[in-house]
Design goal:
71% of the residues lie in helices and 0% in strands. With 155 residues, it is mostly helical. The radius of gyration is 26 Å and the shape is flat. The protein starts with 21 loop residues before the first helix and ends in an 8-residue tail after the last helix. GO terms for molecular function: retinol transmembrane transporter activity; signaling receptor activity. InterPro entries: STRA6-like. Keywords: Membrane, Transmembrane, Transmembrane helix. The chain crosses the membrane at residues 25-46, 70-89, 95-115.
Length: 155
């Protein structure tokens, strides 16, 4: 018989279930790893492209070297690895924190039977995202075939 008092037992009147955080944590780590790997692939592809441009002698994206700044370039190359690792770890921490919060919230809504709220959010978010993606795709198609000559080769 529960008369609304806890009778000295602090857990007798608690009705809020404690969520299990293993599943959302693993999803968040998996999402974070995917995002970090994709960012690294894009970064490495850009570095490769820039190095190939330098070997060909193209300097349209990378400024020309100046003899007076060679020492600065060398010290910058030494610092690059440290900054790269530091920013990679900091980015992983930030993405992991945001994805843990999002995954725990989604898991809590699904686990505790409040899926209608998630459905309402998705009904408002998905059309907006699809509209933005469609607009970007339409802009690229129009720019390539309508506004530029020879399918985007000539301005």
């Amino acid at each position: 018989e529960d008369d609304g008092q806890n009778n000295g037992d602090p857990t007798s009147s608690l009705n809020f279930p404690i969520p299990k955080l293993v599943r959302p944590y693993l999803f968040a780590v998996f999402i974070t790893l995917i995002v970090i790997v994709l960012q690294l692939l894009v970064l490495l592809a850009n570095m490769r492209r820039n190095l190939l441009q330098l070997f060909r002698g193209e300097d349209c994206e990378i400024p020309r070297r100046q003899r007076s700044r060679y020492v600065s370039y060398a010290s910058g190359n030494i610092h690059f690895a440290g900054y790269f690792i530091g920013y990679l770890i900091w980015g992983f921490i930030l993405i992991a924190a945001f994805s843990v919060v999002i995954c725990v919230a989604i898991d809590a809504f699904i686990t505790f039977g409040n899926v209608r709220f998630v459905e309402k959010i998705l009904q408002k978010v998905i059309p907006s995202v699809l509209f933005v993606l469609f607009k970007q795709y339409l802009n690229k198609i129009l720019a390539q075939y309508v506004f530029l000559q020879h399918r985007g080769e000539v301005l």
